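User: Teach me something about this protein's shape.
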Amino acid sequence: MRLRKAAGYANRDDFADALGVNRATFKAWETGRTRLKLEDACDIADLLHCTLDELAGRDFQPAAYSDPRQQSLNHCYSLLDERSKDDLAGIASTFTADASRLAVKSGQDTGDEAETVRRAV
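Assistant: First, the predicted structure itself:
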């Protein structure tokens, strides 16, 4: 119920309609009277934008990244639909393909700090 409400579905009926299932069936799932099939659980998790672990009430620990920007990017990626993920992957590949955007690795002292900074931006 917490995940459903957090996703903006204030009542069971609206969520059941969005999911395309009978309202009584969804109520039985949410109250624990009947168990979900894996396929139904996946559909619900997709609609709620959560993992199956979260749906099952398990403590979900997303991957930790030392760089908070990577953590933020991964979170944003997880919210995208498949087409948007493909688009984003294509955009990201242009950054790595453009050698002028890559910074000189530390430890390779070129003696020209300005050149290193220019290449990083």
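Now, about its shape. The CA atoms of residues 38 and 50 lie 14 Å apart. The chain is about 60% helix and 0% strand. If you'd like, I can walk through any region in more detail.
User: That's plenty for now, thanks!
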